[in-house]
Write a structure and sequence with these properties.
The complex is a heterotetramer of chains A (about 260), B (about 300), C (about 325) and D (about 400). Chain A contains ten helices and ten strands. Chain A has a six-stranded mixed beta sheet with strand order 6-7-8-3-9-10, with helices on both faces. Chain A has a four-stranded antiparallel beta sheet with strand order 2-1-4-5, covered by helices on one side. Chain A has a domain of about 160 residues: Rossmann fold (3-Layer(aba) Sandwich), CATH 3.40.50. Chain A is globular and about 60 Å long. By secondary structure, chain B is mainly alpha-helical. In chain B, strands 1-4 form a two-stranded antiparallel ribbon. Chain B has a two-stranded antiparallel sheet with strand order 2-3. Chain B is globular, with a radius of gyration of 19 Å. Chain B starts with a helix and ends in a 14-residue tail after the last helix. Chain C is mostly helical and about 325 residues long. Chain C has a domain of about 220 residues. Chain C contains twelve helices and four strands. In chain C, a hairpin with a 2-residue loop joins β2 and β3. In chain C, α3 packs across α9 and α6 packs antiparallel against α9. The longest helix of chain C is centred in the first third of the chain and has 27 residues. Chain C is globular. Chain D is an alpha/beta fold. Chain D has two domains: about 180 residues, Rossmann fold, CATH 3.40.50; about 130 residues, Rossmann fold (3-Layer(aba) Sandwich). A seven-stranded mixed beta sheet of chain D has the order 7-6-8-9-10-11-12, with helices on one face. A five-stranded parallel beta sheet of chain D has the order 2-1-3-4-5, with helices on both faces. In chain D, β6, α6 and β7 form a beta-alpha-beta unit. The longest helix of chain D has 22 residues. Chain D is globular, with a radius of gyration of 23 Å. In chain D, about 60% of the residues are buried. The chains are: A alpha/beta (about 260), B mainly alpha (about 300), C mainly alpha (about 325), D alpha/beta (about 400). Chains C and D meet through α1, α2, α6 and α11 of C and α1, α3, α4 and α6 of D.
Chain lengths: ~260, ~300, ~325, ~400
Amino acid sequence: MNQNRNEIVLQTQHLTKKFGGLTAVGQMDLKVHRGEIISLIGPNGAGKTTVFNVVTGIYKPDAGNVIFNGENIQGKKPHQIVAKGIARTFQNIRLFPNMTCLENIMAGQHCRGTAGVCASIFRTFGQKQEERRIKEISENCLRQIGLEKYKDELAKNVSYGNQKMLEIGRALATHPKLLVLDEPSSGLNPRESEDLIDFLKDLVKEDLTILIIEHDMKVVMGISDWVTVMDEGRKIAEGPPDKIYSDPLVIEAYLGKEEDDMEL
Amino acid sequence: MQVIIEQLINGLTIGSFYALIALGYSMVYGVLKLINFAHGDFFTLGSYIGYTILVFGSALVTSHFGLWGGLIAATMVAAISLAIVGILVERSAYRPIYASGRLPAVVSALGASILLQNAIMVIWGPRYQAYPASLIPNIHLHLGGIHITLLQLVILIMSLCLLGILYYVIQKTTFGAAIRATALDRDTAALMGINFNTVILFIFTIGPALGAVTGVMVGSYYRQISFTMGWNYGLKAFTATILGGIGNLPGAMFGGLILGVLEMLGCAYISAAWKDVFVFLILILVLIFRPTGLFGETIAEKV
Amino acid sequence: MKNNTSFKSVRKLTTDKIWLLVVLVLFFVYPFMVSNYYIDVAFFFGIYALLGLSLNIVLGEVGLFDLGHAAFYAIGAYTTAILNTRFGIPIIVLLPVSAFAAGLFAYVVCSPVIHLKGDYLCIVTIGMGEIVRLALLNNPFDLTGGPNGVFGIDFPSFGIFEIDSSIKFYFLIWVVVALGIIGLIQLQHSRIGRAWNCIREDEIAAEANGIDVRYYKLLAFVLGAALAGVAGNIYASKLMIVSPESFSFMESCMLFCIVLIGGMGSIPGVVIGAAAISLFPEIFRPFAMYRMLIFGLVMILMMIFRPGGIWPRKRGVI
Amino acid sequence: MKNSKLMRVLMIMGVVVLSLVLTGPSVVGAKEPLVIGLQAPITGPWAYEGQMAKQSCEIAAQLINQKGGILGGRMIEVRVVDDEGQPKTGALAATKLVGQKDVVAVVSTYGSSVCEPASNIYEKFKKVNIGYGVTAVRLTQRNMKYFFRTCGRDDSQGEFFAKVAKERFNAKRIAIMHDNTAFGKGLAEDTKRGLKQMIDSGKTQIVYYDAITPGEKDFHVLLTELRESKPDLWYFTGYYAEAALLVNQAREIGIKFPFVGGNAAINDEFVKIAGLSVAKGCFMTNEPLPSDLPSTEAKEFLKAYKDKFGEIPSSPWPVYAADALNVIAHAVNESGSTDADVLSDYLRNKANGVPGVTGPIGFTEQGDREGVPFYLYVVDAQGRIVVSK
């Protein structure tokens, strides 16, 4: 069924996560293919963010494992997973508020640097070079997300939309292979959403895979190559966006059973 | 076998003092997340005021109501005056700093503690003061061969009653719910119509007053007070609050009692010199395996 | 240097240069103008500056709530005292040794507890501080000399040049403090300093952006402890005796106040905080009984009017 | 831009250093009076002891000045420096006094671990310093030229206790308890050494040896352990505050065996806190109390002290401070010079039987006080501390 799609980048096998008695995610199998934008959608409480947090190592799964580029990363610490190439953003923005925008981006570069304590104290040549490289890359990154004029502005003083972009920029600064975005368009006005869609589209051209959790159907339809739908911790459907849009199971999950005459 | 019971009672007596102070401590600490170093000195000030009342004012009281009357009068006056001092300290040292975060509040609390401690030294002098032996009822009891004084029994019972009353007020009444709500999340509680100032007024009167009552109890039981004793008791109360779990008032009570028993075990079965080391080691072990204290619920950090 | 230096920043640079000169001149002239007493007061000011800087790494940079920092100071002082009096190892050799001992102690003690948050970590550090002090007091294996402490510690000497007078100690401590300041400024502007600040701002976000939070927290504790160990070494060799009273819980509280009053994460602020905490009692000596009363009052007022500290850290241009 | 932060740091240090310079008063002492320094814990945990020492020295100086002063009419002036009972501030106080050239000699301080760093500084700057409340044996084992002490040593008190335990109490099982302070633990260790000879001969054994934590209030647990070890004699070498609590709580849990305190354990504060019913019958090994001092100087000193301050000092140490001042004044007057070497030689070799409040004053080769008698005191029915038979 998945005709011309290239190899799998990320795969979860029977992923299960329980909080006390509640099974937030049960036997979830998710496949993400290289160079695509995959959307993970579903009603609130479907367990989307939980899958997210398990994949990025914030939560330990109760069962099942997570394969990334053929390597099982289940149980690894978040910073190790980032080093492997999965970068993420958060549902409610978690920037470093009292640090400048440039410093926020440079934080993303951290796992790519190697300077140790002695190198930093004695300012060895390699360390100076690395600092210069980090600074340049960060400035390019800022330019790429259009925030270079806020370079020395504290992150908390920048507008909400820009903070969203800054968080994506910070994730990009870790040179990821897979970018995992948690509701990137929430809180953005329509114009900002369009900019976001275009921005993400040309990101993918640079051999980057994107997995998004999203509610805004317009964004999902406009951007995704593949959609997976979750409800009550289980996958109920997956496929190209237009097929999913008309799938009765999906509509039922979203809008409940009785209303048959749902106008689209 | 008898000795073990006796030691247990000794441990519980120390524990009940720690529990009472820890309760006053965690009322402020639970709600404001403020390490109130000055609380140890509220305790000391309470015992000094109790001492002054007993020595000077009580001649007329004890003549009418006997020894116990004098003691109760001293406790009342100490509690009321400490309630006032509590409010004064809150208004002057803590209120201006609520907005600027928790760490500056710690320094301010330290400053308040040093200020109070030295104020007591300046007023009452650096010497040890002694609760007059004649004014304190001193009756020895032999319950089944166990040596216990009436005062020790009364204090054990009184502290358990006070703990019970406060447990009821905090856990069962609506006003108690308001306090617990403010402890968990001040802003949302305020949105629910809980007036933050009345909660502050309550905790900064009951907390210090409780410290004062404990101060008079310790003064009358050990009959010797010094202006630096608040510092040790304050540290023990903070340890008990953490052991029980932050913001959890019953936890602070049990934390205090457990701390007392731990100290007893350390002193009896290891050595008196190493008992505090033993207590702190146990505390650290508890925190390694239960990062939010014995009764503190592990709230998952919502991401 | 920034290439497009506007006129204002050029002027600022030159005034800084002049100020540096004034400070250096004063630094060299001061000990020869005043009596030994004021040189020793400046020496203890230097010790507290070094301790303030060491705690600043843990509390100021990473935001870890450490109220037991005097334990590392004690480990450094006692390592120097015991090794010097028992095995006659020269003090200068013991300087790195006591830094290493304090750092190793920090690593061993903090590893199992580094995951604790805020106040829970605070009580563990208080517990650690008390355990160290009480262990020193109880004289295990007849090593620490109990309440009498260890005495008869030699002076530091580089071959023939021996540091035995107040003036020489004054220069020794302030050279070490200056080196510490330079090292810490470099660290602040490095990848490591940024990682520490990220952890202080938001631990979860830092971990999710590739910063090994556990490693950097431990690194902060080890470096802070090592610097405190150095301060312990110099203190022991100056006083020729170390006893448990100098490393009490109140001492840790004072170090905490130095960083808070000075300004969290701000190196000049911490040095000023150390000046406030160490010079205040000496300047107000004539008030005797009321001295500490005023000291407590000043701490409260300071936090009301300058909660961010005397010289708070400005997130400047990089 | 980076080094601007460094410059600002050094700039601020400059300002601080500048302020220090301005506050450095240049001390111009009046030429005439002969200044004797007193280093004592005026504030801090031992503030009470410090203040009594200050008053005692003032009285001693007042008495000498009334008799026309020394060296042909030069009045004695006492200059007090507070060391807060802490080693660090002890060193600072010593440096302060040493810097003042007009200070002839120093009566220095209470507490062995504070006296240690201070005496090192006095030694280096050649200033005679006499300890008045420092009983640690090691202080005079450092063959120092300028350090003396007017109070006794722990080991002499330890031997005295061993003699008392054998002859007076004929105790087979002895319990020793100290409070982990420099003084308390030192005396406990020396008492163990004093008893060694009796222990080896199998006549007695130490059934309990432990320490309380100073500042604590509740000792029931510890005392229950003590009671279970069933000693015949209980020796506590700590201070009176904890001693009163211990004795009080011991009676509460039914301890009957006699209590003997070290020389800092029993005074009128002890009787007040413990209460007469409990304090009655408690013993103490102590140097002669002011009230029992036979010499005429003692009577005169106590009368002057009582007239000025209303009560006599309640512990032996302040009186030793007064005697330290007396012996310095005497040495300066007899040797006719204020040079440290002359004074130290006079004190070490020529000063024997100098009339003092605590009896005749003389020093051994290492600077210890010669012939310090110890008495066994007991609290009598009226709460007075008298020499026991």
